C-alpha cells in the first residue's frame, strides 16, 4: 500500500523503513532535506513540500504525520486539509493530545476527509521490534489502512497467547487495536505514557534505595555494598518485576552503574500531565502517576523554593538549622 509520511525523525524515518522492507511504497517529506535524502536512498519517493507530497499520492490518499505534537502538527494538519480531497485520510501518529484529534476530525468531516489518530509506542526500537499502535477513527478509514498497521505492528512473536481470548479481535494479539472513534487512540496512548512514568519512577526509586544500602548512617551489620547491575540482570530472569523498562535499566547499569552521562534532569512531553487531568476529570485517584509526574518537575530544580521554605519554617518553630555541609 502507498503512504505519505511527513516527519522523518527517529520515529517517522524508521516507520517508513519498516514499510518499505515489507513491500509498501512511501512518499516522504521533512523540512530537513537530509532526512528526505536518507529515505529516498532507502527506496522512498521524495517530496519537497506538502503540496508535492499530496500530488505524488494516488487517491484515496493516506498521509501520516510523525511530527512534534502541538503547533507543528496542528499547522501540518491544517495545510493538508486544504490540499487533500474527500475520502483521503490524514493520520497523526505523534503524541498529540486526544482533545485535538476530536476537534480536527470534526473540522475535516464536512470536507469528507478522514482523520485517524495513532498512539504509537516502541521508540527507536520499532524498526526491529515493531510498533504497538492504539488507533482512533472511523472504521472505514481504519480498516483501509490495515495493511500498513499489520506491517508496522510487532505481530504475535514469541509472546504466549492469553488463555480465554479465543474469538476476540485478533488485532490486539498482533500489536494494534482500533480503540474507538477519533481521539480514542491517543487517549489510550496517553494513559500508557502515564503508566510509563509510574513504572519508571518505581524502578528509579527502588534502585536508589539499593544504592544507598551501604550508607554510613546505617548500623554496620546492616550495610550492603550491592551490585546494582547484577540485581537488574537477575530480576530480568523470572522475577515478578521483569519488563522492557527493566531490560533498559539493566543495559544502562551494565554500561555505567554510576550513570555519569546523565544529570538527572527529566523532561516530559505533556502526556503525564494530560493523564492526571483525565484522572481529575473522572475523579479517579491516580496517586502513583501524579507523584511520578511531580518527581519529574522536582528533578529540574537544583534548589527548590518549597524545600527552602520547609527549612525556614523548621528554623522558625524549632530553631533547627540546615547542616553547613549537607550530605547529598
Ligand atoms: N521518540 C520516541 O520514542 C517516540 C515514541 C512514540 C511517539 N513519539 C512521538 O512521535 C513524534 C515524532 O517523534 P520523533 O522522536 O520522531 O521526533 P524527531 O524530533 O526525531 O523527528 C521529528 C521530525 O520532524 C521534522 N519536522 C519538524 N517540523 C517539521 C515541519 N513543519 N514539516 C516537516 N517536517 C518537520 C524534523 O525535521 C524531524 O525530522 C512526536 O510527536 C513524538 O512525541 C516519539
Ligand atoms: O511508548 C513510547 O514509545 C514512549 O512513551 C514514547 O511515546 C516516548 O518516548 C515519549 O515521547 C516520552 O515521553 P516523555 O517525554 O513524556 O517522557
From TrEMBL:
Pathway info: Carbohydrate degradation; pentose phosphate pathway
First-level EC class: oxidoreductase
Keyword Cell inner membrane: no
Oxidoreductase recorded as keyword: yes
EC numbers for this chain: 1.1.1.343
Gene Ontology BP annotations: D-gluconate metabolic process; pentose-phosphate shunt
Name of the featured protein: 6-phosphogluconate dehydrogenase, NAD(+)-dependent, decarboxylating
